[in-house]
Backbone:
């Protein structure tokens, strides 16, 4: 699998995701500077976590307008898989690749903690190595991960199976108790209509080694490697 | 500009006020110090020159009250690459790698404006570390707030924590550890001590000493604004009710720009362009240019009109004294300016050649062609005021007999009260606001072990080493007897590094005290230093960097003396490290070290009996060393599953913490024929002790006997409760509720 990881000036989890991809695929992804005109031909584009352009305005709003994102949109349109994590989720959402928006956490504070996620479907490139209904433990680290979409959009997302992950209790109950940020319907990650673009707030890349946060995030990358190699 | 011009006396700017005794006093210089400045100058200084004297001779920059004492600290060991005197200390951690670290206070600014004060404290200490060529890999912080009931405390906690998180999270550096205490003595002066640890190739450390006549002096980073002017002087004075009006002296941070600055500096440091580099921290351009020239034995010519400015109408005085953040000063090799400029332009940062090195040993400032300042450099350093302030030692209080302290009326209630008291209650509300996982190397998270532990990245070997870090001080011990307290702070830091299995290597100290002009405060300082020096020497734990914050007083009331000890250690194979969480049933619970039942200055005495008295627990450094080396060897041998040092709250609190952290209970018994009262055994704060959980009790006890280390099997892990036979039985869920509820409840209350 050839992967590219975008690097904005304020990206700061690009190293974490690159490390995870290398661990699973045995191959270093290409790091692509936001100002570089050419995006290499790759099997997967990753928009990593961080504070893209400082994000003093609205997270990801400026990054979504950057030249490289224009190219990412074009590739996504051709079916190249795009994975947006945390700030990357905010950016791809701002860029219109995914529905909805990410607001300030309901409690208004940054939160870094392990959360439990219920895998909603295994029918995607990103979740094929999980079972539908499986509960995994991965961390979050964000101040603006409160997902919101209007009722009509939510209905469409649910009808078409575009919800990827929901926050849940350790036993898998989805009732708001495991929700760290106030996201509507406990949504932690969503797909586009073709399920070739996925955005999520949690950090599977920080859960790929037993001593460093567990291994529940590893299957996400394993699934991608399997599908895209 | 000719050399002749550089030696000419400065012109006075239009509207420049005459130097009056009042202006001198406003600059924090005593009449004697001003006379000294006049003698050096041979004439009346200009305003900008006076400002430079004021900043360089402030307590913050000159260490004039503390220097004679700081010299007593041991600073050398075979693994020390750079001791105190640079931006940060540097130690060799093997495999060609060095750890670069320092702790620094931002107390005064954080009280005045908590968010920005704390944020820029983090920004400043990060710059100190990456200035030396190290990529920061971990942040820690030691916070002291006033009485929770004080009307300002909640606001200060909220702002400081958000500020620390806001800066560190954006920079992408994990904040992995620290400590937070509350005491009324900090009502008017909170403490915000921030520590950064970075990793660099051991042969690629960058220093501040300028070299190379004619080499360009380069300014990079943010533009200079009017914020933070006289921060160094402000933080060298006591607070009074007017301090609120000093808010403009607090700097405003921009972590995004600092992130760019970090990456740009790292990129430039990979080339051969840099001769010397220094961050602009306290006293900004003044202190950075002065220190670079002084350390290199050179002069410096600065064209102030070339400094990138945030607003129009700024004058030389403001430019020299601004503490705008996210700025660096560098000396480059000749001809490397364009290479450097390209890198900084890529990161969209300002870059300006603002001067050059000279052989005059003078700092000469020009402003649109006029000389506006001309100061000889060496005398400002060599003739800086240095005080041997009078001091009175703090007498050792009478030892409190455990028999004079009542046993708890209700054991369960006493443990729940202690676990939920502000000093011991879970600080999860705080550290959940810090990204402690970024970089993917965090092996021991906050609250999961006595020290934070991160994997050292880019290690070529198959087994990765781990860097253990901690921050410790027990101010109530230091207050009761500074020498014992200083010794204890070092010993506890050493113990915490040991408890995860790492070898303690070196210390950074952050000395927070009151007004040094009071002999009893100076006595606290002197006592603490003597205790620390002895402990550091005995434990082979040299001090490699540090910071002093004095005048932490409000209207004459000083803080508790707080010599915060930041420490770093290494474990060669991180897979062998242990935390303090008890996650497995059937393990033997063993107490290591001697228990005399010391209740003087204990948390039990304060929280349950409402008394703050007695001598603090004595620290037997030989026993510390012996017991610690034993525990570390047992961890190395793979016999230990969990380990926790005993400190605040003693044995019972340590056992409760291990249980709730790992979700496993235990059942233990007190030894038969106990020579001390049960509450002294369970709540006493004797030093040099650990609790370990082990699968091989007999082997461990036998090894302890051989090593001459006191060790005692207490019982076994398992079950949903903490059971001390004949004393108490408490469900872990009840302990956890008491432990976790206090801080969020307090912070969520409206008033």
Residues:
């Amino acid at each position: 699998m050839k992967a590219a990881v975008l690097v904005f000036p304020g990206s700061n989890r690009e190293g974490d995701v690159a490390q995870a991809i290398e661990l699973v695929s045995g191959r270093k992804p290409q790091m692509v500077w936001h100002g570089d005109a050419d995006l290499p031909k790759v099997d997967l584009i990753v928009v990593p976590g961080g504070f893209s352009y400082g994000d003093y305005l609205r997270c990801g709003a400026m990054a979504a307008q950057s030249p490289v994102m224009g190219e990412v949109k074009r590739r996504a349109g051709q079916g190249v898989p795009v994975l947006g994590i945390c700030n990357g989720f905010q950016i791809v959402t701002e860029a219109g690749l995914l529905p909805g928006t990410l607001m300030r956490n309901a409690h208004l504070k940054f939160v870094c903690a392990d959360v439990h996620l219920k895998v909603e479907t295994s029918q995607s490139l990103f979740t094929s190595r999980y079972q539908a209904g499986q509960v995994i433990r991965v961390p979050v680290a964000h101040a603006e991960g409160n997902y919101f979409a209007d009722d009509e959009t939510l209905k469409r997302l649910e009808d078409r199976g575009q919800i990827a992950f929901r926050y849940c209790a350790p036993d898998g109950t989805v009732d708001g108790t495991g929700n760290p940020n106030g996201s509507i319907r406990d949504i932690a990650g969503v797909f586009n209509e073709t399920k070739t673009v996925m955005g999520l707030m949690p950090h599977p890349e920080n859960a790929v080694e037993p001593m460093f946060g567990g291994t529940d995030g590893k299957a996400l990358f394993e699934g991608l490697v399997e599908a895209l190699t | 500009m000719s050399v002749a011009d550089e030696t000419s006396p400065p012109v006075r700017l239009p509207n420049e006020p005459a130097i009056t005794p009042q202006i001198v006093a406003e600059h924090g210089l005593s009449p004697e110090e001003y006379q000294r400045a006049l003698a050096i100058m041979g004439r009346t200084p200009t305003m900008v020159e006076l400002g430079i004297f004021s900043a360089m001779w402030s307590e913050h920059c000159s260490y004039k009250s503390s220097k004679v004492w700081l010299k007593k600290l041991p600073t050398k060991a075979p693994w020390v690459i750079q001791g105190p005197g640079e931006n940060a200390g540097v130690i060799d951690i093997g495999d060609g790698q060095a750890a670069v670290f320092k702790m620094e206070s931002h107390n005064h600014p954080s009280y005045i404006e908590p968010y920005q004060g704390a944020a820029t404290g983090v920004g400043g200490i990060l710059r100190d570390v990456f200035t030396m060529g190290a990529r920061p890999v971990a942040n820690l912080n030691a916070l002291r707030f006033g009485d929770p009931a004080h009307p300002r405390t909640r606001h200060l906690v909220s702002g400081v924590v958000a500020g620390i998180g806001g800066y560190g999270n954006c920079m992408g550096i994990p904040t992995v550890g620290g400590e937070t205490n509350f005491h009324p003595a900090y009502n008017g002066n909170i403490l915000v001590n921030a520590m950064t640890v970075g990793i660099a190739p051991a042969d690629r450390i960058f220093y501040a000493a300028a070299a190379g006549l004619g080499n360009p002096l380069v300014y990079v980073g943010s533009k200079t604004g009017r914020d933070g002017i006289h921060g160094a002087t402000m933080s060298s004075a006591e607070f009074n009710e007017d301090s609120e009006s000093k808010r403009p002296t607090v700097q405003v941070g921009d972590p995004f720009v600092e992130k760019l600055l970090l990456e740009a500096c790292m990129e430039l440091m990979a080339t051969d362009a840099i001769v010397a580099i220094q961050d602009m921290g306290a006293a900004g351009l003044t202190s950075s240019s002065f220190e670079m020239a002084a350390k290199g034995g050179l002069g410096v010519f600065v064209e102030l009109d070339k400094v990138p400015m945030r607003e129009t109408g700024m004058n030389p005085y403001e430019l020299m004294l601004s503490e705008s953040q996210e700025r660096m000063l560098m000396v480059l090799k000749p001809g490397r300016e364009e290479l450097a400029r390209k890198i900084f332009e890529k990161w969209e940062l300002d870059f300006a050649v603002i001067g050059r090195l000279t052989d005059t040993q003078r700092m000469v400032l020009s402003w649109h062609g006029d000389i506006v300042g001309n100061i000889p450099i060496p005398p400002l350093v060599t003739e800086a005021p240095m005080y041997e302030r009078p001091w009175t030692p703090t007498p050792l209080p009478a030892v409190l007999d455990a028999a004079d302290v009542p046993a708890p009326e209700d054991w369960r209630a006493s443990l729940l009260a202690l676990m939920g008291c502000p000093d011991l209650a879970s600080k999860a509300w705080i550290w959940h606001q810090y990204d402690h996982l970024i970089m993917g190397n965090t092996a021991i998270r906050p609250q999961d072990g006595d020290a934070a532990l991160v994997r050292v990245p880019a290690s070529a070997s198959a087994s990765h080493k781990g860097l253990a870090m901690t921050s410790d001080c027990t101010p109530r011990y230091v207050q009761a007897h500074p020498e014992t307290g200083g010794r204890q702070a070092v010993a506890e830091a050493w113990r915490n590094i040991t408890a995860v299995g790492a070898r303690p290597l070196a210390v950074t100290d952050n000395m927070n005290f009151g007004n040094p002009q009071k002999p009893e405060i100076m006595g606290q300082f002197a006592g603490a230093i003597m205790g620390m020096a002895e402990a550091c020497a005995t434990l082979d734990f040299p001090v490699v960097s540090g910071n002093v914050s004095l005048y932490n007083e409000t209207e004459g009331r000083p803080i508790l003396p707080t010599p915060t000890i930041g420490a770093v250690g290494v474990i060669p194979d991180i897979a062998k490290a242990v935390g303090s969480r008890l996650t497995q049933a059937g393990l033997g619970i063993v107490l290591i070290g001697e228990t005399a039942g010391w209740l003087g200055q204990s948390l039990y005495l304060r929280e349950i009996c409402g008394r703050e008295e007695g001598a603090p627990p004595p620290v037997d450094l030989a026993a510390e060393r012996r017991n610690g080396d034993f525990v570390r060897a047992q961890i190395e041998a793979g016999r230990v599953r969990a380990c926790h040092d005993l400190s605040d709250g003693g044995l019972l609190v340590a056992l409760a913490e291990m249980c709730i952290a790992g979700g496993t209970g235990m059942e233990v018994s007190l030894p038969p024929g106990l020579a001390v009262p049960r509450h002294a055994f369970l709540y006493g704060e004797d030093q040099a002790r650990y609790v370990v959980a082990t699968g091989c009790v007999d082997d461990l006890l036998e090894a302890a006997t051989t090593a001459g280390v006191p060790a005692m099997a207490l019982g076994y892990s398992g079950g949903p409760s903490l059971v001390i036979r004949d004393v108490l039985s408490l469900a872990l869920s009840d302990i956890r509720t008491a432990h976790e509820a206090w801080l969020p409840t307090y912070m969520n209350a409206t008033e």
